[in-house]
Amino acid sequence: MLLAGGQGSRLGVLTAKVAKPAVSFGGKYRIIDFPLSNCINSGVDTVGVLTQYQPLRLNTHIGIGIPWDLDRNIGGVTILPPYEKNVNSEWYTGTANAIYQNLDYMESYHPDYVLILSGDHIYKMDYEVMLAFHKAHKADVTIAAMQVPMEEAGRFGIVVTDPNGQITRFEEKPDKPGSNLASMGIYIFSWPVLKDALVQLSRQPNCDFGKHIIPYCHADGKRLSAYEYKGYWKDVGTLESYWQANMELIDIIPEFNLYEEYWKIYTNCMNLPPQYISPEGVVDKSIISNGSEIYGEVHSSVLGAGVTVGKGSVIRDSIIMRDTAVGENCVIERAVIAEDSQIGSNVVIGIGSDVPNRLRPDIYSGGLAVIGENTVIPSGIQIGKNTAVSGETSALDYMGGVLPSGEILIKAGDRA
Fold it and tell me: Is 145 in contact with 214 (CB distance < 8 Å)?
């Protein structure tokens, strides 16, 4: 059961029109490709994808699951949005509530075990190995966990274990963590245990696994084990972590390798021609996806499919998502530009001082300039750091042709 209904509000304008799991990543992929690929690589061939917020692009991307070999007569992938019922119809109000509302779907497969996943993390994991651990420890619930720096432990659900890996205490975002072993939001439940917990807590408002289901199972005397994971795992829940995870893909020896033959990442690829780099084009230490045309310079950046970079333009340390057009003689540094955007000529993005954002310093930070999808930036505009722009803007929207560092420009109808 793959939870993919989240809004991802900490990604700001990137998720104003699309669910977080459908945000582009690594040029050709979307975030949900990683847990879906983990499923098929692990032999999991029955997957329910729970959607809610802005689901259109996610639904279109997954389709009937062909890229992941999940188009099957029995099992395969099923999209599970909220739906009208005879009584008590409601949106998904928490991670566990979403699973509870799909008890009938799970029941129809007569499962022995249910794997609960988040659709917004970047990692590779063999769930078959985790299931073997679950069985070997005769666990009722197994939680995937990994060590994090102790100063960051308060941001996570923390598990405290005995020498055998059995969980003795579970703390949800504690002020004083008892360990640095953090829950990854990946769970394996023995089916009877999961069903009982969901039914018993069905009236709990905003029912959540970390806050309600796991503590309930622990208090009920169920056997909880921690499966310690030591590979790469990234929660790309903030703009800075999202940017950093993309930049790590282009390291000389990337910590997260997209090119491993034995653990492929699958996606719904568009039929596009190869990328083209003109005689005057320069590309250095970058990912350039199919259909892109480079007439300027691209350094240490990740470009999606169908991106055009005009003559004389220079792009550095940036993420440019698919079908974006950058005009001529632009300079773009440390920016994230979402899909289908139009950047005029002689535009400069990422200049000025690194001052905090005036309205949303909790979202727009790290010196990044963020451009939402379907945004139009007219020619000759300068945009500073820790900024956000979304919508079809005109020269009149910029005082003196400049959006200073720390400012937000959101046209009517868009969300900051």
Answer: no
Q: What's the CA gap between 379 and 359, in Å, rounded?
A: 26
Q: Is 210 helix (H, G, I), strand (E, B) or coil?
A: helix
DSSP character string of 264-322: PPP------PPPEE-TT-EEES-EE-TT-EESSEEES-EE-TT-EE-TT-EEES-EE-T
Q: What is the pLDDT of residues 71-112, one digit of tens each?
A: 877 788 998 988 776 566 678 888 999 999 999 999 999 999
Q: Rounded to an integer, what distance in angstroms lies between the CA atom of residue 24 and that of residue 61?
A: 11
Tokens of 174: 């504690």
Encoded tokens for 383: 């945009």
Q: pLDDT digits over 332-378, tens only?
A: 999 999 999 999 999 999 999 999 999 999 999 999 999 999 999 99
Burial class (CB in 10 A: 0-12, 13-18, 19+), 23: buried
Which segments of the chain have a pLDDT < 50?
A: none
Question: 139: alpha, beta or left, given left = phi > 0 and alpha = psi -120 to 50?
Answer: beta
**Whole-angstrom distance, CA of residue 373 vs CA of residue 391:** 8
What tokens were used for 224? 């909880």
Distance (Å, whole) CA 121 – CA 222: 28
Task: Give buried/exposed letters for 32-46 (b at 16+ CB in 10 A, else e).
Answer: bbbbbbbbbbbebbb
C-beta separation of 127 from 39 below 8 A: yes
What does the alpha-carbon distance between residue 80 and residue 4 come to, in Å, rounded to a whole number? Answer: 10
146, 285, 327 from 288: Cα distances, Å: 32, 10, 17
E strands of 162-278, at which residues?
A: 167-172, 181-190, 224-228, 233-235, 276-277
State the pTM of this model.
Answer: 0.92
CA distance 416 to 406: 13
Q: Are 80 and 102 in contact (CB under 8 A)?
A: yes
Which three-class secondary structure state does DSSP give residue 183? Answer: strand
- CA of 278: how far to CAs of 15, 292, 308, 345, 369, in Å? 33, 11, 11, 18, 27
Q: How many CA atoms lie within 13 A of 400 on its CB side?
A: 3
Q: Count Cα neighbours of 179 within 13 Å in the Cβ-side half-sphere.
A: 18
